[in-house]
Amino acid sequence: MDPIIEVLALLLGFLGWVMVGIAIPNRYWKTSTVDGNVITTSTIYENLWMSCASDSTGVHNCREFPSLLALSGRPSKRSRLLMIASVVLGTIGLAATLIGMQCNIIFWDEQMNVMQSLCTMISVSWYAFNITQEFFNPLFPGTKYELGEGLYIGWCSGTLAICGGVCLVFACKSDTDEKPAYPYQPSRGTVYSAATSRRDAHSTYDKNAYV
């Protein structure tokens, strides 16, 4: 394996895994919009675990969401499950890379990184889709939100994870291309050439001529 590409893949995978851990507890997955509001007395922001509000004096009040089973119909339920799966898959991928670092397990490492990236991207994109759908719906009666910084951290995390997987693939490919071809070595038995065969046949014919 190319050690430079291998270290780069490990670094990208580690950064992606760390950024997942930063995005999950980030409180600003969505923030209430000021579009169309003349006077704004409070700001509401949410993440996967709680909803918070801050007033003009800087006082923050947070309320945790109910249990996972009580989040029926909310995007937080699916996004929460996918982000937890992303952390688990990223941990497995990093452990496999650190232990093995060889092409015989490269498919396992690359697969974990790609699956981590997919879980993160789907979770963040699904959450962002629901925010934009409510924002542009003129008939939506509730509070409208904008994309928060937690979503952008999640997108960066997914991008780093997929880049790490791609680097692992190229590292394995370069290692395969550099393997020398082993020359064919015949066994140490008697080697018969075409000239030897013709000489033996000629000798046989000569002996038959005297019979």
UniProtKB/TrEMBL annotation:
Keyword Transmembrane set for record: yes
Transmembrane segments: 7-24, 81-101, 152-172
InterPro entries reported in the protein's UniProt record: Claudin (IPR006187), Claudin_CS (IPR017974), PMP22/EMP/MP20/Claudin (IPR004031)
Annotated membrane topology: Multi-pass membrane protein
One biological process term in Gene Ontology: tube formation
GO molecular function terms noted in the UniProt entry: structural molecule activity
Gene Ontology CC, one term: bicellular tight junction
Family listed: Belongs to the claudin family.
Biological function: Claudins function as major constituents of the tight junction complexes that regulate the permeability of epithelia.
UniProt protein name: Claudin
Originating species: Electrophorus electricus
